[in-house]
Amino acid sequence: MRQQEKTTAGVSKLAEDAEERRPRHRQVFETILGDIAAGLFQPGDRLPTEAELAKTFSASRTTIARAMRDLKSKGLVNRQRGAGTHIAMRQEKRVALFAPFTQSPSDLGWIGGQIHAHLQELAAQRRDHLRLQIVSRTGGNRLDQMMASARALIEQGVAGVFYYPVELPKDEAYYNSMVVDKLQSAGIAVICVDRDIVSFPDRSKLALVTYDNRRGGYLVTDHLIKQGRKRIAFIGSPFVSSAASDRLRGYCDALEDNGLIVDKSFIRPATFDDLNAAFAQSLISECRPDAVVCKMDHYAALVGRHLMGMGLTIGKDILLAGFDDDPLAGLLPVPLTTIRFVAEPFAKLCYERLMSQMADPEPLPAVTMVDVELIVRESTAGAKL
Question: In the predicted model, what is the mean pLDDT of residues 33-43?
């Protein structure tokens, strides 16, 4: 009965799949597959009988039998007359977190580092081998380095890749797609982590686990508006990034919902190296903002330093906010309001999605979003205007 209760939890997914009009046996297969990938069934566990599953899913015995045959063909279950159906013993899997924007683990940043740490914990629990794939500091241009790293993963016999796309200029954005194509052509399962390999409004065919960046952009901008601020600047990325573009879309949504005009001159794409004193002076002289939203906390920290150097008081003269809830956000001279991204459930969803992809290489692409939280600190706690 314990296993039957576990599978019953997948019925909500079954209802969602029905909208896509997939064959009934396929819906049952994917629901049980999801339970296996989530670790709800352990190697050696006995599945409920076909009669019990037919009752759980309100399906015919023929439908359940077809789903069981599909699970067996994938090597996920063992069936023996008189002994029932059991989860197959797990074999060690070689997987990798491929972050082509990194040349060392420290380049992953706060959120990326947290995701990597939790993926390592999950791999250890499952007795899988997780490799962190970075790019070489030498050996050709960026694309050459990325493709060389992809070849290294293929040579290592990796079966699945958590692909953490690099943010690229528009004329280089196709590099991510070339790397993914290389991996998939070698039979490696790939999911996207945090952001897609293309930017809005495009959408790749890959499964994607991401944060609700659009809601994050909305929450922080709406908070600033409620503080009486109406001239809110957004400092984002000049590169192709679905995460950054979603944050910008949330910013625009909040302005429009509050009856404010989206002024494109207030949207300032910039790299970290662009954020010098001249950038800050130009922002203030040309836009006269009363609040600034930055694409990440490190941006906000640097911008805030230059604004204070101009004699402005953060949290009073100008409000400032970021994304990530990096530890530095609470340690700045004026602690920073930010959007918090929780890494542990995110990493778990990534692992579940990749395991499902490895077991069934042709699922429909899906986007799984993890919620975010607004953390209010002194940088936006000044008196309302």
Answer: 78
